[in-house]
TrEMBL record:
Enzyme class: oxidoreductase
Pfam family, one: Fer2_2
Cross-referenced SMART domains: CO_deh_flav_C
Protein name stated in the entry: Xanthine dehydrogenase small subunit
Taxonomic placement: Bacteria, Pseudomonadati, Pseudomonadota, Gammaproteobacteria, Pseudomonadales
2Fe-2S ferredoxin-type domain mapped to chain residues: 1-90
Signal peptide annotation: none
SUPFAM superfamilies (alphabetical): 2Fe-2S ferredoxin-like, CO dehydrogenase flavoprotein C-terminal domain-like, CO dehydrogenase ISP C-domain like, FAD-binding/transporter-associated domain-like
UniProt EC number: 1.17.1.4
Organism: Pseudomonas yamanorum
Domain named FAD-binding PCMH-type: residues: 192-365
Length: 482
């Protein structure tokens, strides 16, 4: 059984189909049709809902953290121990919520189909903002698409909603909601079981290891932003899933003198501060990683584990020399991330083995990363590049260069590195290394970019890296796009 709050209503579910998304649960099981399906792939934001969960702040106070999610990519099992809020829950005692009122007064809706998703993103923004902030507003709404308004009135609504925000029913009930969430906090492995399909929800790494050993055919579910597409886009059935999002051990970020250790189930939103503090380019890339809804769900371990050749984080982690800790039963092994990827969607992971955490070295001063995509926000890379050079008295003593989008896996450019290692750091060396990239990669042409464009982009990004290190005041970091 799993338990969660539907606004303030306690829901206990056991026999639901584990392949059921929160979107379809709301619409088909509860008759709450305000949440819309636009794309079923997490691109449009029409299905946005907000999930609240217990969170301890830096001062040790218990709070509710509200986050926007794409309900089309969220399986119901991930709600275990949390609070689900949909657009129907905002109106209170006959009065529109302040974010709804702002949309009305600022004329932020025309056809209205996308409006509930915008309202929920604005609600989450309001809960997480103390004052109007145009940058945060753009970030909060980047995952919501509208074909009618041109966005200006919606951004005006965001400013109004976050300026002198009034107390709402969620604020007045916060203490009670915290108490109720604490009362339903999971204490043992939860389960959804429809007879032919099941999803298990362990609470510890040891329990996960035992369950995965017992069900090696199970699919591991973290954020679900990739896995859920198999159900929503390809109409496949997932007979057994194991949800790892309630394992606190796998959501920790620990900082040591020489490294960060990031649990594989840590959301990309939660990774941001630690990675940005150490490597601003990594932080900038995370700002361009899909949408805020996706970053609130997607995990660093999932972005590695799905072995996509265009995943944004692996090239950066490979260039930094990151390692992963793989767990199977009581056995753990540490593997260089670059050795994890073998071929297209093929990895070195053994049966019943899972990524427990990612180890990211600290202290890499010349690390830079760049992403080339058709859109600045909410788009997949055509090429993603990461550079990490050690230079001593003008001579390159060690070069780590990694790319995504250039091959069947994210990988290092070994010929390029060979051209750099031991050479003087100058434009002539850079040109030789650019030429060597043609030996490292024979990229494919697809709808994102041609093979010629990809290779030229990769070469130009190395040139860009050289120019920025020579004249750091002109750095544009990862904001390059087509």
């Amino acid at each position: 059984m799993i338990q969660f709050l539907l606004n303030q209503e306690l829901r206990s579910e056991h026999a639901l189909d584990p392949n059921l998304t929160v979107l379809n649960y709301l619409r088909e099981h509860l008759g709450k049709s305000g949440t819309k399906e636009g794309c079923a792939s997490g691109d449009c934001g029409a299905c946005t809902v907000v999930v609240g969960e217990l969170h301890t702040d830096d001062q040790g106070a218990e709070q509710i953290r509200y986050r926007s999610l794409n309900s089309c990519l969220t399986f119901v099992s991930s709600l275990h121990g949390k609070q689900l809020i949909s657009v129907e829950d905002l109106k209170h005692q006959g009065q529109l919520h302040s974010v709804q009122q702002a949309m009305v007064e600022c004329h932020g809706s025309q056809c209205g189909f996308c409006t509930p998703g915008f309202v929920m993103s604005l609600f989450a923004l309001q809960k997480n903002s103390d004052a109007p902030d145009s940058q945060k507003a753009h970030e909060a709404l980047a995952g919501n698409l509208c074909r009618c308004t041109g966005y200006r009135p919606i951004l005006a609504a965001a400013e109004q909603a976050c300026c002198n925000k009034p107390q709402d029913q969620f604020d007045s009930r916060q203490a009670d909601t915290i108490a109720r969430l604490k009362s339903i906090a999971p204490t043992q492995t939860g389960e959804l079981n429809s007879g032919d399909k099941r999803c298990l929800v362990p609470l510890t790494v040891a329990d996960l290891a035992d369950l995965y050993d017992a069900y090696p055919q199970a699919r591991l579910l973290a954020g679900g932003t990739d896995l859920a597409l198999e159900v929503t886009q390809f109409h496949r059935t997932l007979p057994v899933m194991i949800y790892v999002g309630n394992i606190e051990e796998m959501k920790r970020i620990e900082s040591f003198d020489d490294r960060l250790e990031i649990g594989a189930a840590t959301s990309l939103s939660d990774c941001y501060t630690a990675l940005n503090n150490e490597y601003p380019d990594f932080g900038e890339l995370l700002h361009r990683f899909a949408s805020l809804q996706i970053r609130n769900q997607g995990t660093l371990g999932g972005n590695i584990g799905n072995a996509s050749p265009i995943g944004d984080s692996p090239p950066l982690l490979i260039a930094l020399g990151a390692q992963i800790v793989l767990c199977k039963g009581n056995t753990r092994r540490t593997l260089a991330l670059e050795d994890y990827f073998i071929d297209y969607r093929v990895t070195a992971r053994q049966d019943s083995e899972f990524i427990e955490k990612i180890i990211v070295p600290k202290g890499v001063p010349l690390f830079r990363a760049y992403k080339v995509s058709k859109r600045l926000d909410d788009d997949i890379s055509a090429v993603c590049a990461a550079f990490n050079l050690k230079i001593d008295n003008g001579v390159i003593t060690d070069a780590r260069v990694a790319f995504g989008g250039m091959a069947a896996t994210p990988k290092r450019a070994k010929s390029c590195e060979a051209a750099l290692n031991g050479a003087t750091w100058n434009s002539a060396t850079v040109e030789k290394a650019c030429a060597a990239l043609a030996e490292d990669f024979t990229p494919l042409s697809d709808f994102r970019a041609s093979k010629e464009y990809r290779l030229l982009s990769a070469q130009n990004l190395l040139r860009k890296y050289f120019i920025e290190l020579q004249t750091p005041h002109i750095e544009t970091r990862v904001t390059a796009y087509v």
